[in-house]
Amino acid sequence: MISNQKTEQQAKPNGNLAILGLSVDALLAALHLKHSALGQTWQISVIGELSPNKVSLTSLCKDQLDLLRELDSQFDNFLRKTKASYTTTNKFIGWSEQDFYIPQQSGLDIFHQPTLFEISKLRRQGYNIAFQTEAFYFGQVLAEQGRFPLSEKFPFDLDYHCHIDSKKLQHYLLTLLTGHNITLYKEQPIAVNNDDKGNVTAIKTPSCTINIDLLINLNSKTEHSNFSIETSAQIKLNNIRTNNAKLVIATKHQHVHHDSEQVSANQNSPHQTSVIALSNGYAIKTPSEEGFVFHYYFNDSRLSKVQAETELTALIKTHNSAVNTLEVSAAVCCPHEVYISQTMWKNNVIALGDSYSQLEPLNHCQNYLSFHTLTKIIEVIDANAVSEEVKKQFNQVIQFAYLDALTFYNALYLFNGKQGNDYWNTPQDQSLAPQLLLPVIQQWFSGQDIQLDARKVFHVYHEVTWYSLFSGLNLSPPAHKNYENIEQINDDIAQISALMAGCALNFPTAAALINTLVTDAKSSLGNNDE
Amino acid sequence: MNSSKIKKIVIVGGGTAGWMCASLMAKQWQQQVEIILIESDSIGTIGVGEGTTPTIKHFFERLNISEQEWMPQCSATYKTGIQFDGWSSIENYESYFHPFYSPLDNTYQHEFKQNCFLKRKGIDVQAHPDKFIVAAELGKHHKAPISPENLPFKMTYAYHFDAGLLAKFLKTKAQAWGVKHLIGTIEQVGKTTDNNLSHVILAGGEKINADFFVDCSGFTSLLLGKTLEVPYLSFSDTLLNDAAVTIRTTISESIPCVTTSTALSCGWAWQIPLTNRFGNGYVYSSKHISDADAEKELRAHLGLAADEGEANHLKMRVGRFSKGWQNNCLAIGLAQGFIEPLEATALHFVSQSIIDFVDLADSLVFQTADIEAYNKKLTTRYNAVKDYIELHYLTNSRNDTPYWQATRSHKPSAAVINILQTWYAGEDIFEQINASHLFEAISWQAMLAGVGAFPTSDKKPEVLPPNLKVDMDKLKRYIDKTCQYFPHHNQALSELK
Fold this sequence. Notes:
Chain A is of the alpha+beta class.
């Protein structure tokens, strides 16, 4: 009891909050904090040195984009200038017999989900019903029609990702930082002061000492390896997922990426990210205004870097036959180890971003997790009720969220449809399915509705996404009987399609957007002439 | 009970109910049955109901008549719901909108339900229905509930129309579809020994035989009540209003698409917009106010001088016959029953009663079991509507006149007591209210929340942590953005022509 009281006294209504790291994630976190109620009373500083970005394109989730829009009315102009690109659906190629989609969600989709769930249930009961899960997603419609997911007037939420040049984004955020009363120390910390309870009290840089009440560590694991802030031991991810160290999908995953400027963006579906299963990993093909960027995440114990580059080059060629030569020299290779940590919040140090976890980059869920984790941190601090018990509960909730996301990836590997390849066949052993996945599998295969544990407040992947995944992986029994009211179902699907087609009119096509820009430019020139 | 095929139907009464009945039967059975409608030229029609519920759309769909065809001919307008003014004296709940819910409202239905729940638990949250419902905003801005191309949601709406013009319109249709129209006053009704109706005799002596009769004779209930002597069940113990006075006024330049129901001293006043006029009326309890004073109060409410506009006084018999279908006689409209028009249900009963009948007797043959099923359904419908209307009075918080106090003085039905107890206990009323009810659970919730029927306490309301609050700004943006595309009511009406 006494110790609790003492701990609660640590929570202050205000104080010095330092963010360690100068990555895009760290800068976003600083702005997020400053924009919150917390930012009005706490002094926020960012400490670190600029280091090269691991990836040339940074993907931001809708919430992060909205935050930046609130902070800067010119943010959309920045996106235009930097030729940012968008994703409203994710196509999984080669993971199953047929390619499938996991689109981003929209508020519009909730109208169709009861129909989707009902049809899925009938399909799993063996009825012969032809339907595509993605047809129930508005994000898919926008992607197929090549419409930008930006509309001032559309009343429903629409989730999407935006892909921005990492370097330009970092510079933009740094500028934004200074305009929002956030103190920037562009120096690498050299030492840290702790009190007898283990709290960090100050950070020393070559030029100054910064007093700390709360530290948010956003230095990546590798970046701070020579620096003495370690929040906790990391969970051995492969053990969590499979209990089998031989399932080395993620261990020492290497990451090759390539900016292929020569590859033109597909004008018919520019707002789609593709996740392409390759021999020993997968490539992510992200749209950009000047082409596509390819990242190959592979298992380097099975494939050398040279082999990975060769495979990626071959893949790029298949995606645009007009390309004969590629500048492979631009390729970079860096470690992409998948991990999460035991504890996010310990004493007065919070590990966030890479400092806490690095997940599979599928669906860009790390951005979503980071944003909402920080929102929860703000809520806890703002409530002025930080105690060891609160931190313990917080850590459990957050860890569940990350494990929940990992469970989704586990399912993807567990039910992948590839054959004759050790890399893909090893994780297909169903006895290795993690505990969190079991109820979902049980619900699906017994023909029930998928219902996630509502007590867990932080699901990254909601029920409907599981339908997309399992349907996409073709996990339904063979259809062997006709459904009596098939016409009604077809009518329902047609109505949904018509509704979404109408709603899509609220979003500009690429051509319309270009026309607008040209008109604006002409108008601007005309004004200058005057 | 004769279960042989119906070959000839006589409809008694040429008001709105009579012609609605004639047109749908003629459309349904084409030339398979002879249909004769007998209308007296000496008995006027009441023309009850200028406001409707969304179910009336099904009626026009069954007739395959487009809005473009019938609406302009009936001075019809669109209706998004009913604005209730002055029914509550609780601060911030003096006015609320009972909307027709459309799929667009699903987006925030959960939040509305959640806040109603929290409010009943003494937590300070926004729970006024107008803040959550698209139709309320459409009504506020006189926007028609017609889906724009870029937001093609199926909207739920009803109509206002001139009931007399509708009868005239349907008369033309019905006659074109083969209905014979006879002018004459029925002097005698003939019965068989097994208490079936056999014929009617007109004033001139003409005898008309039929094997099925439809009683649309209004409050007279010539066939069902007077001839077959089906018992009448009065609702006067719970619903006090038994009279009305009506006055027409000039329509405003911008035509509203809502019915307004304003609580007055001894009842309530309606205002219904048509394309060419407002229909106004004051429904009141004659035990609490005289006809003359009621007219005076209505005139004052409308800002009319004593000589402005012609007032029409009506007496209402509120209740129903214990059966709507007895042997070979079906009663439709006022001849079947009447509940005061607070929720515009009169024509709902008419259209649904006809539709239920033609669906049951689709092959023109029916059994005793069909009649029983029909009557059971009708009874359920009456009880449900009566309960819902009754709740308006039970939850009103006015104490300014003996009338309003009297409206709360009776013992409600068990169903109403159950709903009120559930509501005030902070439990879920959605599970109690049958999904097939005319007024869905969300309507009951809107009404209860709309009048501010929340438990009171001396304690200061608890404040919800910001992260748990419904983002009302975001909700407002959603509703504003949604409504911006909908056409102005005048524009939508002009596009019908």
